[in-house]
Amino acid sequence: MTRPVSIGLAQMGSPPGDAGANRSATAEAAKLLFDQGAQLVVLPELAVPWYTVNPEEVDDHAEPLWGPTVDAWAAASADHSGLIVGGFCERDGGEFFNTAVVVDQTGVIGHYRKLHLFADEKMCFTPGDRGLPVVDTQVGRIGLCICYDLRFVEVVRVLALSGAELICVPSAWITGFDAQRWDAGGFCPQAHGAVLQANLNQVFIACASQVGEHSGFEFLGSSVVVDSFGKVVAGPLGGAEDEQHVVDVDFDDVRRSQIRGSLIHPRDDRRTDVYGVSYDGSIL
């Protein structure tokens, strides 16, 4: 059995100053990847307006969930019957959230607010309050998290045990947690973390990062798609330039990767009589 899915990575920088231009750039990048055969496109964290931890910029440019960014992404999706996962700055009443959404031609079908705020994000965003969603889509079951969330191993574990086949991770990878930028293979430390967690949790992980120098940050790029065996099937993309890539994967590998040998079944081998992950009132 095979379940082929084409994933598009849109690694791009969103320079400060013109939220509308950045919004249009994300939609155009998605269309380009759709034209190349992608069924699902992953955009970076805070692709709109841009990655910012300036409270005034956040207040000036935050938008409601069903706002111009979702409208633009839904229109791009409708033209190609595809899916877009991306990040933007959401306003809800008097609160601001670092948000990721799954969008199809109808609009938002998956909605996540970043649980683990990084560094000065804590000065302008409210911690997420929507848990860790897994969304049924036309290509399969999609889990969502954002950037720094990958540093908390419970996140990928919960999403995988909740049935995610692919975890999409809009990111804006910078230094700070680790001093290293890239290794000899072009992997930043965050990308290595995605590789390890995909293998340990038998799930695909797709990370699209911001890139370049803007907003006072050096973004690391290094966007990747990793399969459920921990094999890098796309990337790492470069550390300096916008770049797009489409990769074909087989979601049936998620099932196959849960049996590594006649007596090696990593999901079934968990000692749930000794430990478990508590999520949403249940022990997984």
Helical residue percent band: 10-25%
User: How many H/I helices?
Assistant: 6
Q: Structural class of the secondary elements? A: alpha/beta
| Multimerization status | single chain
Strand content: 25-35%
Please write the string of helix (H) and strand (E) elements.
EHEHHEEEEEHEHEEEEEEHEE
Read across the widest sheet, the strand sequence of neighbours is 5-4-3-2-1-14
Shape: globular
Mean pLDDT: 97
**How widely separated are the two ends?**
28 Å
- Alpha carbon gyration radius: 18 Å
Spans of at least 5 consecutive residues with low confidence: none
Number of strands: 16
The major β-sheet equals: 6 strands, mixed
Overview of the structural elements:
- It is a single chain.
- By secondary structure, the chain is an alpha/beta fold.
- It contains six helices and 16 strands.
Give a quick set of tags describing it:
single chain; 284 residues; alpha/beta; six-stranded mixed β-sheet; 16 strands; globular
Fold blueprint:
Layout: E1 4-11, H1 19-35, E2 40-42, H2 55-61, H3 68-80, E3 83-92, E4 95-104, E5 107-113, E6 134-136, E7 141-144, H4 153-161, E8 166-171, H5 189-201, E9 204-209, E10 211-214, E11 217-220, E12 224-226, E13 232-234, E14 243-250, H6 253-256, E15 278-279, E16 282-283
Parallel strand pairs: 1-2, 2-3, 7-8, 8-9
Antiparallel strand pairs: 1-14, 3-4, 4-5, 6-7, 9-12, 10-11, 12-13, 15-16
Helix pairs in contact: 1-3
